[in-house]
Structures are given as C-alpha cells and as structure tokens.
Write a structure and sequence with these properties.
The protein is mainly α. It contains 16 helices and no strands. The radius of gyration is 20 Å and the shape is globular.
Length: about 375
C-alpha cells in the first residue's frame, strides 16, 4: 500500500516536472483580469493531468497488472478499477478541457460532472442508504431513489466545491491529502483495504504535485485536479458509508464540511446580491484571509511579494480544515457528536466571515508587516 502511494508520488512529481518545462506557453493564455488570480507570471494550470496519470497508472499498471494489490489482499482488480475510471472521465475531462481552453461555461462543466455522478451511481451501484437517524432510516430505505439522488448530488457537487477552494499554493491539495488520509484511516479500521488504497494512492500522487506547487507555485492543479479530488473523495465517501454500517454517514459530512459549506454559503451570498452563482468573485473565505488577515509584505519585486502573501494564506486554511478532520477521525462512529461538530462549524463560520468582511478582526490574529 505504501509502495503504490510512493510510486504515485514519484510518477506525479516527474510528470509535473515535464509539464512545468513544456507547458509554459499554456500559462500565458490565462487571463490577468480574473478575480481569482493571486499570482504573477505565466504558470501552467495543468497539474491535474499529472495527478490523474500518476494516480491511475500506479493503481492499474503497478497495482493490478503486476498483481501487487491482489497479492497484498487489497482487492484492487481491473474489474473494480474500470468503473471508477469510467465514472471519473467526464468530470476530469471537463476540468482538463477547461484548463487547456478556458472556454467551457460553468453550466457545461456542471453537466459533465453530473454525467460522472450518473455513471458512478449506475456502474458502482451507489446509494446513501442511511442518514444516521434511527427513526427516519427505516422510511428512507423504503424509497431507495432518494439515496441514489443524494449520492448523485454529492458526486456531482463536490468537484465544484474543491474547485472553489483551490485559490492559493498548497491549499486545495493539502486539504485533499488530509481528507484522503482520514478516509483511509477509517477504511482500514473497518477492514476495507481496497478502498484505503484508492485514496492513499491519490494522496501520494497529490503529494508529488505539492512538491512543485508549494511554496514556489511552479504549477497549479487547475479544474482537472480539483475535479479529480472531488470525484474520488465523493465516491470513496459514499462507498465507505454504504459498505460499512458502523461508519456514521455524518463522518464524511464533517470531513468535507469546509468545502461543502463554503460552496453553499457562496451560492447564498451571490443569490442574495442578485448575482449568478456561476460568476467568479473575490469574496470567498480564503480570499478574505489573503486580503485582510495576511498583511502586506515589503519587497521590491512585486511577483515575490505576491508569492509570499500567497504562501502565508494557505496555513490558515490548513488549520481551519484540521479543526474538522481531527474530530471526524476521532468520532467516526458517533453520529450525535459528528452532527454537533458540523453545527459548530456552521455557527462559527458565518460570524467569522462577517467579522473579516467588516474589518473587525482582532489585531493579534493579523500578521504584522515585514
């Protein structure tokens, strides 16, 4: 298991090196005027291609073809891997196509992630068969279509949630690694080593990408990387809850509450202003951290000054993510406790967001000028 993860990391590292070397022209086509741009220079946004190839090749060639996975009793075979690949192709393909062309509309990309969700539900037989409420679950299971729809909604939406938080060097990639490690931990606790291998290999591939992405920002994951992270994590979460009754369905909810709630809240605030949810802006939580908590730094070179502030932003959000990942891992069986932490996150997030927007952040939280 560790060997395949390391192989995925090394392969992705090499592929990203080639992309950095030969895809610089692609970075020059990325608009300077988009509100979510917080870097200077031409940086290729095709790191998702390297992550996808590193993840899939390590599982298929090094795992299935060599018999390593079967020999280690990890239950990764061509028959189990192909449905994952077929389900992910429309979503990841949409992200990569957007990265290379920057011409796909949000509705078109949503349509392709929805196609991935339909394929995942159909090919893998996915459904959310429990909600964690003993009195309600019996009625919920009488209408399996609702569970299938919830699985579809999660798999179609989570790629966009990861794409939304992908704004600074190392941010979304590290969040993805933390979540994958948490899912792998619980999967191993319930004896599902095959599922653990799926997400651990993705974590390894992402780690190989992060060596180039943080702190220097030499390559970005782009939509392709975000859609891959969201797709794999969403499918793995549904599979974990569906296969193992001891895992609370609120475990993945708490684990993913940061990107999920950021997306829900962003849709709400845009609609409240009469703006389409598909229109990009610079008012997401991580962007406010960059603008109003991570203070300006002194440096003669503008690009280096922007890079320094960019790198100082991500650790704030890593800590923010750990506040949900740690209790999710500790209480993965306990539905009431997990629900309580989800509620705590929501009632903490909204006042914190409003405090930052209104310039009421305590001085001790802000970094001083250097």
């Amino acid at each position: 298991m560790v060997v395949l993860s390391l192989c995925a990391g090394v392969l992705t590292w090499l592929l990203c090196l080639l992309l950095i070397r030969y895809a610089l022209d692609h970075g020059r086509h990325y608009s300077e005027s988009v509100p979510q741009r917080f870097h200077a220079g031409a940086i290729p946004r095709v790191g998702g291609l390297g992550i996808f190839i590193g993840w899939f090749v390590s599982l298929s060639v090094l795992g299935v073809a060599t018999g390593f996975a079967q020999a280690a009793d990890l239950r990764i075979t061509a028959g189990s891997l192909i449905p994952w690949l077929l389900a992910l192709l429309p979503s990841v393909g949409a992200g990569l196509l957007e990265d290379f062309t920057q011409r796909l509309s949000p509705k078109f990309r949503l349509g392709l992630t929805s196609a991935s969700a339909v394929l995942a539900v159909w090919l893998l037989g996915l459904t959310v068969n429990r909600l964690g409420f003993s009195g309600l679950d019996a009625y919920w299971q009488m209408w399996p279509a609702w569970g299938m729809f919830l699985a579809f909604f999660a798999i179609a939406g989570l790629p966009h949630a990861f794409n939304l938080i992908d704004g600074y060097n190392g941010l979304a990639g590290t969040v993805a690694v933390l979540i994958c490690l948490a899912i792998a931990h619980v999967a191993l606790q319930v004896g599902d080593r095959g599922l653990a291998l799926m997400v651990l290999t993705l974590a390894g591939a992402t780690a190989g990408f992060l060596l180039w992405n943080y702190p220097r920002g030499l390559i970005f994951a782009g939509d392709g990387g975000a859609y891959l992270w969201g797709g794999v994590v969403a499918i793995a979460s549904v599979v974990l809850v569906q296969r193992h009754d001891e895992v609370s369905p609120w475990f993945p909810m708490l684990l993913l509450i940061y990107p999920v709630w950021e997306t829900v809240f962003s849709i709400y605030r845009k609609m409240a202003r009469g703006v389409s949810p598909g229109v990009a802006d610079a008012l997401h939580f991580h962007q406010l951290i960059y603008r109003r908590i991570v203070r300006e730094v002194f440096h003669d070179d503008e690009a280096r000054r922007m890079l320094t502030r960019n790198n100082r932003t991500s650790p704030y959000l890593w800590g923010f993510t750990l506040l949900t990942v740690i209790p999710a891992v500790l209480f993965w069986r306990n539905t009431p406790v997990l629900m309580g932490f989800c509620l705590l996150f929501v009632v903490t997030y909204v006042p914190t967001y409003l405090m930052i927007v209104r310039f009421k952040v305590p001085r001790w939280i802000r970094r001083g000028r250097r």
